Amino acid sequence: MKYLLTFLLFLISISPSLAGDPQTGKKLFFGEIRFSNGGLQCMACHKVDGSGGTLGPDLTKVFTRYGGAEGIKAVLQGGTAFPTMTPIYREANLTDEEISHLAAFFEKMAQEGEETGRFPAGLFIFAFGGFLGLLFVSQAVWGGRLKSVRRKLVESSKY
Hints:
Blueprint: H1 2-13, H2 22-30, E1 47-48, E2 51-52, H3 62-65, H4 69-76, H5 86-89, H6 96-112, H7 121-142, H8 147-157
């Protein structure tokens, strides 16, 4: 009887949510499901597999970098592991269930996803080309605008 009671207590203590569901973790990450304590969705600052914000680092391979689910849980519990995250999650800690779902999602991303650079080279080339185009247009439109004024100033300073 003693062993049966111990076994039942053990079964009760194991939460079925500890396994985590990658689909639920994905929905939590992208804000499709809100965090129960009102925390900001992860994608506001982070990206995975090329989608999301750029303030924080790419989390596609974070599962591998932090040594698996235990590393993820250690970072996310309390929400104050990083100074930028502290004001956001100080009063809105993630639940153990949410952390498990996110860890499962990050595990799936580590296997299937692909990290992207912080600033895509194509975007840089596009921005630089746009800058040069605007520079050319502004020179063509306003390039000779001040020559007559400057000429008068130079002439008046000679005397």
